């Protein structure tokens, strides 16, 4: 018999100590405690509920307690708690992906893809999020879809599920930059094994950047049906809408030198339509236990995304400022409409068997994905006027509809099968998986019609050196279509591939109250598009990039009252091969060599101040290159955040602050050329929550 593991959200106490030797003959029961940050298991790396100490890959989990305590409202805000991750800012989500270990990562929702060429599918609201799991390195054996498997890492967002108890809350948050932010979570048992839940959020706000303002709202209903003692059906819906006046960034060198106004809007705001992102998802999940040792899971989703982007921007690489007036730039309007329709299904069978002298968790699965992607590039080479970024006067009009210059109409089809074995032989835990994928890609505009057949392996092992401490090592691979390649007609398009080696130490020292991962890694990405030296404006696949480094993620919870987390990453991400020899050895954009965070939260559990909690954190980066080729780097900085809450009866009041030191500086920003965005200045927010 395999161990029965009953995990409650934010679990803390166990009937068996966390660092006790694990045996498949014993039951482990975990009692609920919602104020700790320690999560002992993960399902994202292996698609099975596996203790993190047994996973031969670096995986970090952010639970709802941490999100709530730190008053995190966006995915980018939450991900600073994980080493080696460069989140995508909400303002640049149309043109950038989050980075893990220096390479693009993808955002999955409840274990299924949402076409990951950018961060448009990130959760607009964290109100409906149960936890966020970051799997570092390629994940090409049990995941795929859209244009292929994640090459650099996977950010899997797990949504809340309906429960069998009536409950919920309503909350209202307000603060700097005219932020108005109501949100709510309501769970209702309907009887007969049926429960429903709905979460929702709305936010409107201005910005520390001139002219910029926007809103976002999200609603996420779900309903579960207990169809018998062994069968459960879960249906989820999700609708997100975001709207904001598009910001396109300031010229990096001049902004860093203080030659332009940090708050300047580099565009033509009069008549410029807001950029709008709409996401719609319908997901169904069926779980059936044939026995305690055999379970079937079938999950399907339809995903629809529409993005209508309207921007106005400077383009120094095309037409720069007149040297006589170096801060006066021509402004160009642009429109980038796009839509995605994706249907995906994953079915897998999990079996627990004792054979060959050990215990085995065998997973056999099938995956199908069909994605249609349509986009256009509408642009006019004639500027709408001139703007002095040092002394901006916003009197430029966006102008009429823009002429279409190009379109992209892609269809991707994935058919894949995978098998995985997680074997335990006493203190040794072995894992191996293999995925066969047939991926077809058709592009209408240049008659691209290719089919890839790929076998992706992954192997790993962990060894319990002492109870609660294990050494691990792993090798993983992934591949995806080169969907961002612009090649001459007839070019032999190859898939992009990645491979990873990593090893280190996993900790689950319950007696010392310390959990975490120390890992060293090398990650290589091949067949990267590089400029075609013989055809201007086109690319060929001769590039290679490599990332090496060390990461540490540690959580210390000496008592229920105190949680301390710390992370650090050393990342060396460089170009190792390119048609342009001058690029070899240059650093990949947006990736700091050193980055880290330390945060603590203390809860008063007894006495007259019971219900009070407070915390603070410091996030720091070293310099980051703005663009490739490297021409300018954004200096590093450290930012301080803090939070305080007080629970009284059914109510909670929370006050939080961002960038309390008032640091003024810039971050990298992804928008067509070397540009930057000013960091959020000192800001404060207050929230009132009522539970029922």
Automatic annotation (TrEMBL):
**Record's PROSITE patterns?**
TONB_DEPENDENT_REC_3 (PS52016)
Q: Which residues form the TonB-dependent receptor plug domain?
A: 52-148
Cellular compartments annotated: Cell outer membrane
Which residues does the UniProt record annotate as the domain TonB-dependent receptor-like beta-barrel? 229-660
Q: Which Pfam families match?
A: Plug, TonB_dep_Rec_b-barrel
- Which keywords does UniProt give here? Cell outer membrane, Ion transport, Iron, Iron transport, Membrane, Receptor, Signal, TonB box, Transmembrane, Transmembrane beta strand, Transport
Specify the domain of life of the species encoding this protein.
Answer: Bacteria
Q: How does it sit in the membrane?
A: Multi-pass membrane protein
Q: Which InterPro entries match?
A: Beta-barrel_TonB, Beta-barrel_TonB_sf, Plug_dom, Plug_dom_sf, TonB-dep_rcpt-like, TonB_sidphr_rcpt
Q: Which CDD domains match?
A: ligand_gated_channel (cd01347)
Q: Which family does it belong to?
A: Belongs to the TonB-dependent receptor family.
Which protein is depicted?
TonB-dependent siderophore receptor
Species this protein is from: Sphingomonas oligophenolica
Q: Source taxonomy lineage?
A: Bacteria, Pseudomonadati, Pseudomonadota, Alphaproteobacteria, Sphingomonadales
